[in-house]
Specification:
Strand content: 5-15%
Shape: elongated
Number of strands: 5
Largest sheet: 5 strands, antiparallel
Number of helices: 13
Amino acid sequence: MPSEFGAILKDWRKVRRFSQLDLSLEAEMSARHLSFLESGRANPSRAMVLRLSEALQLPRPAANQALNAAGFAPVYPSLSDDASELAPVHQAIATMLEHHDPFPGYAIDRHWNIVASNPGAEMIVALAAPGGPANLIDILIASAGLALIENWDEVAVLTLSRLRTEILELGGDAQLSALAGRLAAHERVRRADMASINLNQAVIPTIFQVGEVRLSLFSVIAQFGSVQDIRAGETRIELMFPMDEVTAGFFRR
């Protein structure tokens, strides 16, 4: 009878679309031993769980779950936001956002909630959803009825594609799936078509219309490479850069 670890291993192998042979080659182990681990005929060592987690590119919470199922302590911590160990991380986020000012910059968590932002980003958010949600997907949906984002359909379809990719990489996520469902259900997204988007462009910006000024911005997304804490490690910093001098001058003023 499959063990809890064996069931987790098999589920993630299917999520990653690996055959047992594919995964055994990726993890540098025998397909026979992998089969025994999935069926519960063999128990993994801690090193083997970590090796398979790396081969399957498991998200940190899933890697902890696999370790627990195999009888080992989790390797990735999950600290409270005010933990002293995370102070350098929070300072790094604040420094990046401050240095990027006057151009918009914000940090979001795994579920696209804004956890930090600079004045440029706060201005854009206030225009898109005044007094509204602090979640980027909900803000995008709320702005659909406004004339603020000139290429809203294009931005929404590309955002939905990005959301779906993240869900696949995570092996599923209920909150992200709910956000994707709300965005996909929007009438303008249902009418839109990826085929209508010119993906041959070198850069696909978000174009804002603020009064008489047309602002064109593209994003750079940064993530921490060595932060082991689950939530902090999933934080993404998105910095928006101007595509033209009109946009740059607007924010500088």
